[in-house]
């Protein structure tokens, strides 16, 4: 995601992955899904000189790097933080100076099934990073140079051969106001969406039996998320409610993760917590209503944190595909014959960095 090393200066190993060589024949790509994987893929293709149209069904880029604005401040409703292990990801982050800040990992506790502190800190000292003012800011920053090539509020409903050129693809889309449109003339279509939607867009194997066969074993667990706010805690005699720690992993039967949102860098000071339910509990309660889940998770939250006060704001939402259980096993998939590719964190794991590397690898493969 940054400039390529010149021919006069030998490139470091990491630099060779930053920007591909200029293509001999620019092509027209459709990228579906503007999460980190889709944005990384689209930007790499554009930097290589190709034409790209990036489609996103939500109102903005971000995917599971989502943040929600409320009257009490922002909540990171999806990914809570990210780590940096690959030099290519580190280089890409250099293009966003000041946007991401370290969130101290020594504040992350490990809790037992009853919510008691089992370990004072996670054994790893690996830095935890967050974007400001919310996790979605990273995807938004990287997507900004795409300009009008990013089409939001538009869901791709079908991929089919171009009506005027069978060697190319066209996409049927639906807008938020039920408007329909057809975008055509694509040399290739790259999918950066969760497995269930990928399978649907592939027509259950009709467009690419090869891709469908490799995606079939993938399994991703759902995750119920609860966001609560306690403005009553922001008083001169009270710095915060509940425990002294700001984040914790838990083996409680309902809860896997808790984070004090207001402890993250660049966040509003009002006391806010995000709770993410365990994969098993989320699966068992997948069909519950948000109100029912909210009540159950509030009870679990009180048990773990000791905060029994009624929150001024409480909101539950479900990510139907949140944490990868069985990945594809490779960074991406590319069917050169069908001219369709697949990327996403679920190809290798469920981390933000996995998503970035997947989108980057797919772009480099198709150039």
Describe this structure in words.
The protein has 367 residues and is α/β, with parallel strands linked by helices. Helix content is 21%, strand content 31%. The chain is built from 8 helices and 20 strands. The strands form 5 sheets. Strands 7-6-15-16-17-14-18 form a 7-stranded mixed sheet. Strands 9-2-1-13-20-19 form a 6-stranded mixed sheet, sandwiched between helices. β3 and β4 form a beta hairpin. It is elongated and about 65 Å long. The N terminus is likely disordered.
**What proportion strand?**
25-35%
Characterize the biggest β-sheet: 7 strands, mixed
- Shape, per Cα inertia axes: elongated
- How many strands appear in the DSSP assignment? 20
Counted by DSSP, the helix tally is 8
First CA to last CA: what distance?
15 Å
- The string of secondary-structure elements, in order, is EHEEEHEEEEHEEEEEHHEEEEHHEEEH
Please list the strands of the largest sheet in the order they lie side by side.
7-6-15-16-17-14-18
Into which percent range does the helicity of residues fall? Answer: 10-25%
Rg result: 21 Å
Mean pLDDT, nearest integer? 89
Pick out the low-confidence regions.
Answer: 1-17
Q: Which structural class fits the helix and strand makeup?
A: alpha/beta
């Amino acid at each position: 995601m940054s400039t390529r090393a010149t021919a006069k200066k030998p490139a470091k190993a990491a630099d060779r992955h930053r920007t591909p060589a200029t293509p001999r024949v620019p092509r027209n790509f459709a990228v579906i899904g503007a999460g980190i994987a889709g944005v990384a893929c689209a930007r790499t293709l554009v930097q290589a000189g190709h034409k790209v149209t990036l489609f996103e069904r939500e109102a903005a880029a971000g995917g599971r790097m989502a943040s929600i604005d409320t009257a009490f401040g922002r909540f990171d409703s999806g990914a809570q933080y990210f780590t940096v292990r690959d030099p290519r990801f580190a280089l890409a982050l250099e293009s966003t100076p000041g946007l991401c800040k370290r969130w101290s990992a020594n504040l992350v506790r490990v809790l037992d099934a009853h919510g008691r502190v089992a370990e004072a800190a996670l054994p790893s000292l690996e830095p935890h990073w967050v974007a400001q003012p919310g996790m979605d800011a990273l995807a938004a920053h990287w997507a900004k140079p795409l300009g009008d090539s990013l089409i939001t509020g538009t869901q791709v409903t079908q991929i089919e051969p171009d009506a005027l050129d069978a060697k190319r693809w066209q996409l049927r889309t639906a807008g938020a106001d039920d408007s329909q449109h057809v975008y055509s003339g694509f040399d290739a279509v790259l999918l950066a969406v969760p497995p269930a939607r990928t399978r649907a867009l592939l027509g259950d194997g009709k467009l690419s039996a090869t891709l469908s066969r490799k995606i079939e074993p993938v399994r991703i667990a759902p995750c119920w998320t609860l966001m609560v706010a306690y403005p009553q805690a922001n008083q001169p005699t009270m710095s915060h409610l509940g425990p002294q720690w700001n984040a914790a992993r838990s083996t409680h039967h309902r809860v896997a993760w808790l984070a004090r949102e207001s402890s993250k860098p660049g966040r509003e000071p009002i006391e806010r917590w995000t709770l993410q339910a365990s994969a098993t509990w989320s699966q068992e309660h997948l069909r519950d209503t948000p109100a029912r889940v909210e009540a159950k998770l509030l009870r679990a939250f009180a048990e773990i944190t000791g905060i029994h006060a009624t929150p001024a704001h409480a909101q539950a939402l479900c990510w139907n595909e949140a944490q990868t259980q069985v990945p594809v096993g490779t960074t991406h998939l590319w069917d050169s014959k069908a001219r369709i590719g697949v990327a996403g964190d679920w190809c290798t794991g469920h981390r933000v960095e996995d998503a970035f590397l997947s989108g980057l690898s797919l772009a480099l493969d198709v150039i």
